[in-house]
Queue: 3 jobs
Job 1
Amino acid sequence: MSRNIPEIDLIDLGKIDFNKFTGFAIPIGQKNEKPLIANQNFAKALVKTFSFDIENELKKWPDFVGKSGELLEIPLNLKKDKNVRFYLVGVGEGKREDIKKASISLARKVKGSGQKIASGLVTEKAFISNFVMSLILASFIWNLKSPKKDEKGKSAFTIIGKTSEFSEGVTRGIHLATGVWQARELIHTPSNIKNPKWLADQATKLINSSKNSALKISIKSGSQLKEFGGLRAVGNSAPIPGPRFIEIKYRPRSAKKSPHIVLVGKGITFDTGGVSLKRPYEIMAPMKSDMAGAAAVLATLLTVSKLGAKVNVTGLMMVAENSLSGTSQRPSDVITHYGGTTVEVIDTDAEGRLVLADGLAYAVKNLNPDFLIDIATLTGSATLGLGRQYGAMYTRNKKLAKELFEVGERIGERVWHMPLIDDYSVALKSDVADFNHTADKENFGAGSVTAALFLEHFAGNLGIKGNWVHFDIAGVARSEADSGENPKGGTGFGVRLLSEWIGSL
């Protein structure tokens, strides 16, 4: 795991050995639509070392004005057959978002080049964590291509700045980005490799390799899942290897009196739609990422443990494959969830809420959570409503919603508070069971809302009191193209949001 993650280092300007680097990133700001050097000390050191007049070079490129994310690459031929490259990177007005764009631009430019870059792009302590995160995440590479002889390998970045001020922020940024990277690697793994057993094995390896005594993992399978009617109904469509219930506990000694947060993640390792087969078939191709919620839960537990959060956290990964076979569930089946609630299955392609319902009910009955949060690539309706820039957030706690919204805006994983419309609950009534698991589509079009209302029942009093949150990340969990920090495919959404919020408690 994390095989291609770039190396990040930090050094004071006075201690830098310029001969160790193949590239230098220089921030160019913008004032009155004209470029200006934004880190004079770093620039002066480069001019002195390489006799390179940056200001004169800027005059040769009148179209380059220092807008955030602009990048000008200048190769410099040196003696002794050594070449270095200067990257003049636009930082605009030098605000948080400007620095983020600069970081992304640099990372994408040198991704996979094997270069060693000294960066003077960030000079403010408040921006360093986000800068590091963007630098790492925009460098993400994952594939199963045969190795090539001319491959350059991963790039490495050394941040030039005061170690006494930047060290904590750099470390935090690395931990948060590494968590997202780990989630992305799990999501990108194809489903001929990634089945429920494989995902459980990976979770075990990652927890054990962390060597953190506060982290413990347990896994249920086979007859141990007899009470988990939703998980079995979905997962028994692929009886080999069958579904898995993964429970991860983080119990630091310093958190005896802290709140207990339970995270529940949807972990469908591949989703055919089951008997209600997905149409058109092309939409099935990205369904290896339908376990993004479970990946986010696992990565969040690993991240908060690295950050030393003084909070008790339990992660539940509800893992199954929704296949099409002779043992698949059928529309009109009635299943009994953990805790005894009966549900009539309407559409086998709405399987995510069935596995989440078991996880929520298990948490309420056994774990006594102060906060209960589920995260899932749940409905296409969420994407229709919010696109791919915001995740849908459901809770009756306005204060909590505001907290999560603000964390998301700051950390780069944005969510929008959506309404739980009680009038729509009638759509979930069943003639033969306690609930239908999906709404009547002819009369109710709010598929993301009705899915949230279904899940709220299993959150019990926490749903009513408002300490339950449901994240529908169907839109933000996948990117259709390389864009910004995100690669084409799985984004790892939720890791930074949840880790930052948990750390704030």
Job 2
Amino acid sequence: MKNNFPHVFSPLTIRGMTLKNRVVMMPMGSDFAGHDGELSDEHIKYYELRARGGTGLIMVENVCVKYPEGSNGTTQLRLDKDCYIPRLFTLTEACHRQGALMGIQINHAGASAMSSRIGMQPVSASRFPSKAGGEIPRGLSKEEITSIAKDYGTAAKRAVNAGFDVVEIHAGHSYLISQFLSPTTNDRTDEFGGSAENRARFCRMVIDEVRKAVGPRVPISLRLSVDELVEGGNTVEDCLEYLEYLKVYKRDEDGELITNGEKGLARKMSALRSFYGYYFKHQIIQKNPTLLVDMPKLHDKAIIRLDTDEVALLLDFVESAGDHLTGQALNYYKKTRDRDIAILTLLLGTGIRVSECVGLDLKDVDFKNNGITVTRKGGNQMVVYFGDEVAGALENYITGDREAATPLSGHEQALFLSTQRKRMGVQAVENMVKKYARQVTPNKKITPHKLRSTYGTSLYKETGDIYLVADVLGHKDVNTTKKHYAAIDDTRRRKAASAVKLREL
């Protein structure tokens, strides 16, 4: 039987978060919460069982960001006060122990709230019910809109403090943000109504507040009703237009407005094309409007990598960095020194991706054949071989600090452990590489991917075999290798002058 979903059980990294698989439990109401919005024991058991079953990411049902006006039920979870954090933390820890990552959906019901439950008239963008037969809501003032956007941010901060890995903003089917986005429920004449840009303004404010609250590394998702399927409502084309307004964000440090560059736009368009392509292929939608949108042109940039002498300087520095440290900094260095050397040596000596590195288990290391088994993009496994320098660094770490460590439950097989005795994440490795590299090469922004570029270029210079480089790096298309890793220097080009003989002398 043909497998139409070959990648479903392969890892996926989003920002600094790595899912063990691509099985995601969507947020669905359970009615297990108490009437005070508190998480119940039944709730915790309910989600823990899903985590134990192998789910990669669990999205917890929508929680209220403003009570009572934003509540959409008598048994809805709340996150409008700090007192709800401890129970939610108990939930995330229980599911984390089973290997699942945790997300939560934050929401304001708007006109979907009922006055009989909340004790007041529901609020919305305008005086339109959210559904046929619903109550007539009160239109929000500008001051109230700003305040509610901040409520989303505050709730998101509480979610992160409670241990959630992802925050999802609910902007779909008849809830408050959707009521602003939809022309059927928004007839405002100020800056929050009229044009698509104005109707998306409140959504943009919420995204900005949430991003400011959770920081740059926590993934944020946005749930939209892409096609409202009602006369006069939003269509797929309208949502593509909203994308133009939602691509701009405000930098936290100085408030400067930043627009996504060509690579950021290309990534977003690629994701949209895949999404709509799937629905079009399976005849769920009749047309694919993303094919009408031109992909942004990408311009080549200079490839940053370490020179041979810089590689040696980096490893030497890590080995001797403790000579310049004292106190707590020295103690931390001693705890992580052998691990950090092993990671850096492995990245520089094999060219594996940082996601492949943090996904390694102890059983994946084979010292008999000097190889590691890595899981490539797409879920395919491959043995990558390493030299004596890598073998020495790995063996020193495994037989020393790693053997002496007692990992937390669920992390027993992880090769590289954090100081919290958990499997290291992508962000932790990135931070470690940057910490050491900026001391050696302050003028180069070195990341784990730059170490991969360094390896790929060195391998090509030594072998001259572009297909070998592509195979070792796990590239499906050799053109990718040529473009990003195989820099042909002037010395190699000069060899072409004498390589071909026209006549025998």
Job 3
Amino acid sequence: MKKNISYREKLLELASIYKISEIQNYIKRKKNLTTSQIEHILKKNNVPIPKDFNVSFFQRSITKPISKAGRGVTGFYNETTGGVEKFFKKTKRGATGFYDDTTGGVGNFFVRLWRNAGNIGLGILNTFPKVFSTVSGFVSNALVDTFSSFYTSKVEETKTNKLVKGFGLVVFIFAIGIIFFTLKENFDSNNTQLVQAEKDKPKKIEKQKEVKKKIIEKKPQKKIEEKQVKKPEPKKEKSPSQVTELVLPNLNIKTETVLSLFEDVEYDLKTVRYQKKVKPIYFTQFPKDLDEIKDTRLKKETFIKIVLPLVVAENEKILDEKIKLNKIISKKSTTEKEKSWLRLKLREYKVKNSDFAELDKRMDIIPVSIALAQAAKESGWGTSRFALEGNAIFGQWTWTGQGIEPLNKGKHEGHKILRFPILRASVKAYKNNLNTHKGYAEFREKRSTYRKRNKSIKGLNLTDTLDRYAQTGKEYTEILEQIIKQNNLSDFESVQLTNSVVKKDIQL
């Protein structure tokens, strides 16, 4: 049989198991401690103390309040019936005292009714906290007794460790499973949203067309008389490629504002890669706090979203001019306006002796992947001092123009980094540099070869021709190639502005 030990002995055993030095020192000095003192020291050292479960606790906390409330109900019933009996007895006294007796009996009846109802309510309300304390006491005592069993039975530490490790392993496996299914569900939902967006887009375009038709149908009705009297002026030819452009002013826009704008206009690179369309959103400068984005991927995506429309817009402008050039050259005779335009383009592309074949070779696009890679390399993904202070994306040098002084410039170096008023001007200057400078003749020659063979002009096929762009030479071209591959910039080669006309006259 298990020996019954006193409550004090249980406390001393707990002090021994938990090695409470304070109690052990008192025992060594042969000083007697009271049970309450031992209990206080254990509580101070955060040792749970077991308590004996008292069955009479239920009787004291639950049975007694309920019985008290029952007695109140019984007393209420007796007093109520007694009051009614007295009321009827008093009615027999006669007509003269009927009024006084009746009012007195009824008044006493309602007074006792109100008093007894109050007593019953208080009894019931007093029962709730006692029931709550009973339940909480029961749970706490049960937990204490459970943990006390570990003390009395002295469970081996190895078994406990195995139990804890096994439970932790189960929790870890369960967590991995939840993460896997969550990621799978998010992936499926994203794909579903992308497909649904593709389905809904044509509907939006059709609605816009219907609205435009209605507007066009209404306008002529108001101006019929004017057309009969006065001939309409010839309208300026508007290229279908011209769409509403969003040009952001030169304000110190924060990155948070830029990200919110992209979200509002549904500007997403995944969609751009899939649809090969980008919206004409032109920033005049980079946000000054772009470098504060800690997520490297988000920082790069923000940079690409800002630069991509600028590069695509410049390339589409070049293709429009190239088509115009080929049409003029193929004509037998040219107008004065066309001749003036040709002279302007010969000066712009630095072509001598009216060599239109050379002009056609120089007047061509810069592969989007190369432009993005060089912009990222030269501007530190839009965070360099030259990019933030002077909109210098491509790090072009100047010896005569306005520029920014490099901090680590050599003694014999007199160059500056060319400054621009807006980002688009930097892109245009970069285009002119690659299409006119003698150092990039190999680039233009190789590009022309792909054009004549009706092959796509891709950046990875031309990076090796840009070794003279930087002093590092071949190492620089290898870095460009690495940036293109790591960031999948080749996906943007055939991207066009939204609602742009496909250039059928030129094989892209």
